[in-house]
Amino acid sequence: MVSEVRILSPPIERKHMDQNLQLRDKYAQERTLLANERTMLAHIRTALALFLFGVAILKLFENWSFSIYIGILAIIAGFIFLIIGLTYYPIRKRKIKNINNSDQK
């Protein structure tokens, strides 16, 4: 016959447990905000790379008519990435802060 062994942990105060949950939620929010900033910086980095690629194509191959289209397309894509990154950053930041504030109420 096998007997069941239970290891009982000491009771944790409810107040202490709530503080741990609040702290964990706060850290999760900070991690999410930092990830949002990294995403915005990646958009800016990609925009800059596309813009510089477009300028380089225009300057290096200015005699070829097809390269003008590629260069202009790369510059336009760079500006689009820049606008997307700078537009969505504050929107996401507001949503992240609102999610945490609604959970606390």
Model description:
The protein is 83% helix and 0% strand. With 105 residues, the chain is an all-alpha fold. The chain has a domain of 66 residues. α1 packs antiparallel against α2. It is elongated, with a radius of gyration of 26 Å. It starts with 13 loop residues before the first helix and ends with a helix.
Task: Please give a quick description of this structure.
By secondary structure, this protein is mainly alpha-helical.
Terminus-to-terminus distance: 51 Å
Low-confidence stretches: none
Strand content: under 5%
Count the DSSP helices.
Answer: 2
Major beta-sheet overview: none
Order of helices and strands: HH
Helix percentage: over 70%
List keywords for this structure.
single chain; 105 residues; 2 helices; mainly alpha; elongated
Give the topology.
Blueprint: H1 14-60, H2 65-104
Helix pairs in contact: 1-2
